[in-house]
Amino acid sequence: MDLMSEDEEGRSGDNNLSLHNDQLEYLIHYVEQDRDAILMENEDLKDKLEAYRQREHEQEEALHSLSGLRKRIQVNEHKYRDHLKHMRQSERAIECLKRRMSELTGNTQALHALSVSELRDLEDTLDTALYKARAEQKIVEQRQALDRQVEVQQELKLCVICMSAEKTILCLPCRHVCMCQPCSAHSEVTRCPICRLDIAEKMAIFA
Fold it and tell me: By the 8 A CB rule, do 110 and 104 touch?
């Protein structure tokens, strides 16, 4: 009887050990599955972080490019105002010369009464008036060219869709700034109007 009892206890111990081994293997398998899931999630998070950093870099480059464009426009507008100021000064001087010429050419007796030195002064005045008239023409042409340039630059600020509101939306990943906020909100605007690339994100940019 004692031998049978010892055999039964041995078999019971073996069964318990086998059960513990099965439980341990199950736990190990579960932990390995959990570990693999965590590793996959970490890799996915790393990819998302890298994509986010790349997007930040692209946004910084786009903002820098936009800032440079605004500075160029401001410089050109300042130059235009300076040219306009000089042109108005020249216009006033030319008007004075024109009035003086009109007074002299309209009175022949006054011309005959002039001395040689006065006639030479008049000739110099006429030469100066001619020079300034040509300079005025050149200034007018420059002003017209500047006006066209300013118009082009103003158009560059406008939304390419409505052509009335200022561009405030940056398209990613192409980095084109080409739309205003209301136009970008339309559901059918899914591609960049400039390059036709699919838009992954629209970012608002303010001056």
Answer: yes
